[in-house]
Amino acid sequence: MKLFNLRGGSPSRRSLRMWMLRFRKIGMIALAAGLVFGGGIYGWKHGSFARAATLARGEMLSSSTQAGFKVDDVIVTGRIHITKDEILQHLGVRQGDAIFGVSIDAARASLSEIPWIKAVSVTRQLPDKIIIDLTERKPAALWQYQKKMSVIDAEGRALTSDHLDEYQSLPLVVGEDAPEHAADLLNLLQAEPTVAEQVASAVRVGGRRWDLRLKNGMSVKLPEKDAELALSRLAKEEADAKLFHREITAIDLRIPDELVIEPSNPAPAEDKNKKTI
After folding, report:
1. Are residues 93 and 166 in the same domain?
2. Which of 94, 117, 136 finishes a domain?
């Protein structure tokens, strides 16, 4: 839990009698406002209804603030990557603002615009606290396109382009439509850990399939369909023949039930410098 104490100290404890008096004062203000609104029909006909309502609301908020119902603390739970300043900026609340003047719906809508936030609730805790409970999106991969890099979640939503050094351990996906297909690829790789641990990046090709770039520089061409079976076959061949430790430039898995290898230093007699397993 993160505590944003806008005042710089913990809120003081007031006696029950004091709060009873303040609530009574608020009740009197509400009664006065009711009397103002009671003349609503007359005011509507003479164009003064909106002005009267605005004046009554302003008076009520001013009196409630004087009675101690003002924002003093903002308490946030679930915050990991989002900064304090970003939350306060979107919340749009300053220390000393009337707590009844804070629009809960508007605050929730504004906070929802932060890319990291997946779900958020905003509530008042009288007399002086705003409580924010949020769920952040989880970073799943780095996405590169047109020389720009950003962090994305499993749904392909871009989260941030700042402080990318913190996310270098994430897999890298490349291509315009890579984000929306990254989750499927990452799930397939998770099922084949011996392959996944060797992958440095995955490049989206023609909006249809993936090329894997391994840490040793090798390229693995996955098929458009049945990529799961192709990765399973690759994992089996790695276990049997240690393909990732051999002098190989590329492995082509696009032909069903075949594995085409392009050696780094092919013999002259080899047809098109390739072998088929």
Report:
1. no
2. 136
**Placement of tokens 């008076």 in the chain:** 59
Please tell me the pTM assigned to this model. Answer: 0.72
Nearest to 152 by CA among 168, 132, 137: 137
Using alpha carbons, select from 149, 130, 62 the residue that is nearest to residue 90. 130
The secondary element (H helix, E strand) that includes residue 233 is helix 227-241
Q: Are residues 147 and 236 in the same domain?
A: yes
Torsion angle of C-alpha atoms 166, 171, 177, 183, degrees rounded to 10: -110
Model confidence over 182-211: pLDDT tens digits? 999 999 999 999 999 999 999 999 999 999
| Domain, as residue range, for 163 | 139-276
Where is the domain boundary, 136, 164, 179?
136
Nearest one of 129, 214, 211 to 178, comparing CA atoms: 211
- Which pLDDT does position 47 carry in this prediction? 53
Are 115 and 222 in the same domain? no
Q: How confident is the model at residue 36 (pLDDT cuts 50, 70, 90)?
A: very low
**Do 87 and 152 reside in the same domain of the chain?**
no
- Please give the Cα distance from 267 to 196 (Å, whole number): 30
Give dist(CA 166, CA 102) in Å, integer: 35
Cβ pair 151, 139 in contact under 8 A: yes
Query: Residue 142 corresponds to which tokens in the numbers above?
Result: 């780095």
Q: Which two tokens stand for residue 160?
A: 């941030």
